[in-house]
Amino acid sequence: MKAIIKTLSASDTAYWLRHKLGLSYDWRSRLADWRRGRALDYGGPVLLPASRSAYSPLYELSEIAAFIKDYRTFDRNAEAEVKPEIIYVELDIRTGEQKRLAHPPRPLIATTTATAGAAHV
Fold first, then answer.
1. How many separate domains does the chain show?
2. Which of 70, 63, 76 shows the shortest CA–CA distance to 44?
3. Element holding 51 (H helix, E strand)
4. How many separate helices (H) and strands (E) can be counted in the chain?
5. Is the predicted pLDDT of residue 107 greater than 80, yes or no?
6. What is residue 28's predicted lDDT score, i.e. its pLDDT?
7. pLDDT for residue 82 is more than 60
8. CA 3, CA 97: separation in Å to the nearest integer?
9. What span, in angstroms and rounded, lies between the C-alpha atoms of 25 and 33?
10. Is 0.85 topped by the overall pTM?
């Protein structure tokens, strides 16, 4: 008998865990360790893939949700939700040079010097 299940790839699962549980672990490495049978004795919940595709292990969405719930019970210090860090970069399109900005740029304010109703020649 075949079943259709909703899954995420290993990298998407790691991203989702980081978003939902915070930065307490490098989730990509933690998932890889669990797949290889390492670090299974840390005393908390473990998330294993539902199947392996040709390219990546696949994690069932319902198992991921259950793991997040169990992990929050296990580790009360897990962050609620982590928003992705937006990095502002000034990029010179001609040369490819880039400079990381320390803060978001101020919005450009459009100014006009033309007076209302002036005729164009």
1. 1
2. 70
3. strand 51-52
4. 3, 5
5. no
6. 92
7. yes
8. 50
9. 12
10. no
Task: Supply the range of the domain harboring residue 98.
Answer: 1-105
Q: Is pLDDT at 121 greater than 60 in this prediction?
A: no
Which of 69, 52, 45, 59 is closest to 12 using CA atoms? 59
Predicted pLDDT at 78: 72
Question: Domain for residue 115, yes or no?
Answer: no
Task: Look at residue 56 in the predicted model and tell me its pLDDT.
Answer: 80
Residue 17: per-residue pLDDT: 92
By DSSP bridging, strand 98-100 and strand 7-9 are unpaired
Is 34 inside any structural domain?
A: yes
Q: 43: closest CA among 62, 71, 13, 24? A: 71
Residue 119 within any structural domain of the chain: no
Q: Exposed, middle or buried, 59 (CB in 10 Å: 0-12/13-18/19+)?
A: buried
Is residue 24 domain-resident? yes
Backbone dihedral region for residue 112 (phi beyond 0: left; psi -120 to 50: alpha; all else: beta): beta
